[in-house]
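Why do we bother with a discrete structure alphabet at all? Because it lets us treat a fold like text: something you can write down, compare, and reason about line by line. To make this less abstract, here is a complete entry for Actin-interacting protein 1. Read it the way you would read a sentence in a foreign language you are learning: slowly, and without expecting to understand everything at once.
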Amino acid sequence: MSYSNKYTFAALPRTQRGTPLVLGGDPKGRTFLYTNGNSVIIRDIENPAISDVYTEHSCQVNVAKYSPSGFYIASGDASGKVRIWDTVNKEHILKNEFQPIGGPIKDIAWSADNQRMVVVGEGRERFGHVFMSETGTSVGEISGQSKPINSVDFRPARPFRIVTASEDNTIAVFEGPPFKFKCTKQEHTRFAQAVRYSPDGSLFASAGFDGKIFLFDGVTSELKGEIGSPAHKGGVYGISWSPDGKQLLSCSGDKTCAIWDVATMERVTLFNMGNAVENQQVSCLWQGSHLLSVSLSGVINYLDVDNPDKPRQVLMGHNKPVTCLTLRPDRNAVYTASHDGCVTCWDVNTGEGSHITGQGHGNQVNGMRASKDGSLLTCGIDDTLRRAAPADEGGVPCYTDVAIPLGSQPRAMDHVIEDDTTIVATVKELAVIIGTSKQSSMPLNYEPTCVAIDPKSRHVAVGGADNKVHIYTLDIRTLTPSVELTHLGAVTDVKYSPDSQYLVACDANRKLILYSTDEYKPAHNKEWGFHTARVNCVAFSPDSKRVASGSLDTSVIIWNIDTPAKHTVIKNAHPQSQITGLAWLDDETVVSVGQDANTRIWNVPKA
């Protein structure tokens, strides 16, 4: 059986308070780049649902930049490694790997002829290095600053110059090649955070945490003046030039972005991005006709010059590991939740994500189910069960003020749509909730890990860390124990088939066992044990004919109930990231989520 990756709903940039983020742009103006964890994410600027993810770094990537030709991308990580890889092939073949500095890389710049490259950051011996991109040979030295360097740029025309912005509040200028230190500029009174040359190299701008932006001559490095006075009330995190070099876009911790006229040094447009802390703007990019900014929450805003108070488009999603997912009953939307409590609703036809608003959990969501009226039930480690009610027909739900206290930390939940019954497995008990009121609870002498309800037989399967699946019978609001099934490892997930004939359970011992529900005996003598590490999650196809399993080994396996010896392995479904949730949209389409914060949709045709 073959399979293909239909869509990837990409992760958002990983942001950190007080730390600027660097966005990269394709010289042809078609795509933009950012990083999250050990991934570099490439997104189409016109249609951001089209994305590509590069995951070959072994540790956190901090910055990625296109070469001026557009054929290569250089990405730098927290260990000081730079990888140069090709953008033409789907496999992104590695061209070169260098270790120019011995600590986190914060910014990268290419020379206009694609020959030279400069990287800066927090090295142990030096804070930056300039070298040939083909061979790694040094072409000068980056020195003269006493603290880590945050930003760097290469003059795009001859005579070549390099400028760097450092945490010692200075801007340094280098002439070459070979590049030698020329002078430092001491206009900034706090960390200098960004330096960028204009497209023709006639000017360069610097920005810092003192809220100021300065303009300098591109060749002589003489100060031309200060833009605004000061430009922002908070630190300036990033600047980006317009393609014609006549305007400058800036973003700031004062929760605004601004466009500046370079000739008059006056502000042309102010974008107010909101009042909350997460509306601080940590990066910006002027790419062709698109103006992008990134909020501290990770969301990407397409700024609208004609309507500065409302972005034209906002890209939402997750920038932290995704912990669970569920489907809307009509299967046209997928809900995903991450360990920071953010819940996103994805339209599976357009790939658009929308965050669920209102008073949520604020921390990890451990279980999620959609109910009949279109609302969403979630339980989180704030020890509550919350309901997000739909705003309008087919709209994105919004959390109501109702929070049902659970008494202890929930591990999993399941929900019967027909009679609005929810069972939550907490570390101490099984709670039966009908509507918004807790009807009963049953104390447990083991630690539950997962729960599933079969609406037809009213059986409830609870997996435990005691290597057992415990089967209960639900009579309206009371649970009665009936059968125990033993595994060789802690049970990690259980699911009933839609036709109620089977129960599948997976465990930490890499195995899946399929039980028939009439006697809870194994349904066949084939052992499903092809994963190489703990199996985290399982899901039945709507026709009850196939099972998907996701594992710590980064792969998804599709199993066939009628021909148990056959299976399809989707290797590296989420490269370098374990799979944390699975669901079937239809009999041939699977959704997977993982620790890499990406949501992927797979086409797995029947044999």
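What the structure line is telling us, in plain words: The domain at 319-405 is CATH 2.40.10.500 (Thrombin, subunit H). The longest strand covers residues 397-405.
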